[in-house]
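Protein entry
_____________
===
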Amino acid sequence: MADPTDTDTDPQEPADEKPGQQEGDSGQRPLGKLLKFAALCLGIIALAGAAGYGTGTLLSGADAETTQPEPQPAENAEPDADDQTQFQYKDFEPITVNLDEPRLARYIRATITVAIANGDFEEIGTLLDDKMPLLRDWLTGYLASCTLDDVRGSANQNRIRREIFDAFNQQLWPDQTPKIAKILFKEWTVS
């Protein structure tokens, strides 16, 4: 008598499978994989294109028109308009100095402008003309001691502007209130 569990075929395996063919493996398997791979590649290309378009749009400022604040009417303008008329300006000659970089030949070219209150312009302008060689000498030494990292960026420019402001006022009027109102950069080139 034959044992019912002793058969050559497994009841879970289909009888018409060919040797070497796995379960769920049909003759169209390479075509199915190819279609899945093509769909995956097209999806990646579409995502990369969308990301590139979005990045290009952001960097080009195409939507800057929609995010710019609207101009304020004249009655709501800040009082900076009066600030422009209460000062007179004295330009320094351009100064070119090598930066303190050991391996690179880098230099800075700067032109500064000094803002002076209208009422004090004659007196301070004359004093600046008299002390110009001393101020230029200090400025040359100060900028020559800066490294490339010391002069890069707006935060460093603001720091340098404050240090020049403090030094000029201290050299011209030691232990007195500052009479130079502002230091402005007319030119700032780092090469």
Strands lie at 87-91, 95-98, 107-117, 180-190.
